[in-house]
Amino acid sequence: EAQVTQNPRYLITVTGKKLTVTCSQNMNHEYMSWYRQDPGLGLRQIYYSMNVEVTDKGDVPEGYKVSRKEKRNFPLILESPSPNQTSLYFCASSLQGAGETQYFGPGTRLLVL
Amino acid sequence: DAKTTQPTSMDCAEGRAANLPCNHSTISGNEYVYWYRQIHSQGPQYIIHGLKNNETNEMASLIITEDRKSSTLILPHATLRDTAVYYCIVRPYLRQLTFGSGTQLTVLP
Question: What percent of chain A has pLDDT over 90?
Answer without folding.
Answer: 86
